[in-house]
């Protein structure tokens, strides 16, 4: 008996039936996409119109610009540096741009700008504190962080100690390590500020730097020199105060030179011996 073998269909044979396209779905997708684009365009136009309305409205014009933290700079100095004036629309002002403009002033280390709706602004500045003048052939100001921030000008403070003996290669640039002699000067000035009672900064006329021998301080009135050498400045300043009290008040000695390089072996030379 013969059995016929069932022939199976080839599932992988490409169908010759025409592809059916769902035009309705395509139309809906196109319609939705067009609607979204139109909505985004309308939103952008409305945003621009709203921005223009607010940034041109006199309701937001500055009636008061408060300056805080300034002592050396006048309020007008800060306003001129910021490029602001009363009547400016505070919403049209870029806070970042104003902040960058203010901190570009050599006497300003930090600035913060804030809007106070609807018609006020506040600029808070942190001014640099000059602690010394560096004589490098040209005179420059050093701030409390040890950075050189501007050339010395006629209007700058004149009661600062003048530092001599340094070179341009010693100068501290922000982010770079100080040279050993520059670091010694900076460290002395920091410690000196903490021990103001020992010898007021205003009475220091100059600090001479010798790379081998260290620092020598020259006072203003009365004029005398103090050899500090390097390091241990706190103990040396306290010892100096004791020596000056003893010489000037107890013994009436007019001092010309004090060698305090070794805090345990202080040498005092009266003026008539120099």
UniProtKB/TrEMBL annotation:
<protein>
    <submittedName>
        <fullName>Cell division protein FtsQ</fullName>
    </submittedName>
</protein>
<dbReference type="InterPro" id="IPR013685">
    <property type="entry name" value="POTRA_FtsQ_type"/>
</dbReference>
<dbReference type="InterPro" id="IPR005548">
    <property type="entry name" value="Cell_div_FtsQ/DivIB_C"/>
</dbReference>
<keyword id="KW-0131">Cell cycle</keyword>
<keyword id="KW-1003">Cell membrane</keyword>
<keyword id="KW-0997">Cell inner membrane</keyword>
<dbReference type="InterPro" id="IPR034746">
    <property type="entry name" value="POTRA"/>
</dbReference>
<keyword id="KW-0472">Membrane</keyword>
<dbReference type="Pfam" id="PF08478">
    <property type="entry name" value="POTRA_1"/>
</dbReference>
<dbReference type="Pfam" id="PF03799">
    <property type="entry name" value="FtsQ_DivIB_C"/>
</dbReference>
<feature type="transmembrane region" description="Helical">
    <location>
        <begin position="26"/>
        <end position="51"/>
    </location>
</feature>
<dbReference type="InterPro" id="IPR026579">
    <property type="entry name" value="FtsQ"/>
</dbReference>
<dbReference type="GO" id="GO:0090529">
    <property type="term" value="P:cell septum assembly"/>
</dbReference>
<keyword id="KW-0132">Cell division</keyword>
<dbReference type="GO" id="GO:0016020">
    <property type="term" value="C:membrane"/>
</dbReference>
<keyword id="KW-0812">Transmembrane</keyword>
<keyword id="KW-1133">Transmembrane helix</keyword>
<feature type="domain" description="POTRA">
    <location>
        <begin position="60"/>
        <end position="128"/>
    </location>
</feature>
